[in-house]
């Protein structure tokens, strides 16, 4: 069973905050596990995005279409707390959809990818979103990602089209490049931070806004690039 109750997660986070505050437990990890699933048409770059995040590299032409489902674990730091992301890479082909649907129910975050050089993959995001709303939990975190942003000359989907679709469904949006690594770390950092805040938030604490966090991080990154 992957999905923990919000109460169980809150207890774990409070424990982790206590332990990491102690000099004797500065290396404590793997107390909170958050499940994230990558979905989208076959060929949009889900596996490459995962490898870029996990290993920090791009391996051109090395991946055949994912068959069924696979996953990897990676520990990330959120507000000085180590959190384990369990990331599932799903097959985009129609014949594997029933397998993918079974994993939606336990997902705490879903990253929906399309390929900016493929209009059909973008058009199909509406069907993916319909499936997500049908099979996933009501409070699942959804993020729309336009992948392969490095392929400017082959672009078939404008950035503003992705932004407009994201606004329509009320979800965060970013363009990413599994090849160059642009925004890849930010995607998973934003998701981990959102999920951690949801699990730990007390009634009177201010709410974390993932849209604002993404914009702030982008601005800080732009400022640093000129230093």
From TrEMBL:
Keywords: GTP-binding, Hydrolase, Lipoprotein, Magnesium, Metal-binding, Nucleotide-binding, Prenylation, Protein transport, Transport. The keyword Hydrolase applies. One of its GO terms (biological process) is protein transport. Pfam families: Ras (PF00071). SUPFAM superfamilies: P-loop containing nucleoside triphosphate hydrolases. Its cofactor is Mg(2+). The keyword GTP-binding applies. GO terms for molecular function: G protein activity; GTP binding; metal ion binding. Its EC number is 3.6.5.2. It catalyses: GTP + H2O = GDP + phosphate + H(+). It is an enzyme of class 3 (hydrolase). PANTHER family: PTHR47978. Belongs to the small GTPase superfamily. Rab family. This is small monomeric GTPase. The lineage of its organism: Eukaryota, Metazoa, Chordata, Craniata, Vertebrata. The gene is RAB37.
């Amino acid at each position: 069973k992957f999905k923990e109750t919000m109460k169980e997660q809150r207890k774990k986070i409070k424990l982790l905050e206590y332990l990491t505050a102690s000099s004797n437990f500065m290396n404590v990890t793997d107390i909170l596990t958050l499940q994230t699933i990558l979905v989208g048409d076959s060929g949009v770059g889900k596996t490459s995005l995962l490898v870029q995040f996990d290993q920090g590299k791009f391996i051109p032409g090395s991946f055949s279409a994912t068959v069924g489902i696979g996953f990897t674990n990676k520990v990330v730091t959120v507000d000085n707390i180590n959190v384990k992301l369990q990331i599932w890479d799903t097959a985009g082909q129609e014949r594997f959809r029933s397998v993918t649907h079974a994993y939606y129910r336990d997902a705490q975050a879903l990253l929906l990818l399309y390929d900016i050089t493929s209009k059909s993959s973008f058009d199909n995001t509406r069907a993916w979103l319909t499936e997500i709303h049908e099979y996933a939990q009501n409070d699942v975190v959804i993020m729309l990602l336009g992948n392969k942003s490095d392929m400017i000359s082959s672009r078939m989907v404008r950035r503003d089209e992705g932004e407009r679709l994201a606004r329509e469904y009320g979800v965060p949006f970013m363009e990413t490049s599994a090849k160059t690594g642009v925004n890849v770390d930010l995607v998973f950092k934003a998701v981990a931070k959102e999920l951690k805040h949801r699990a730990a938030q007390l009634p009177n604490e201010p709410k974390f806004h993932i849209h604002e966090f993404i914009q702030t991080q982008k601005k800080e990154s732009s400022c640093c690039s000129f230093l």
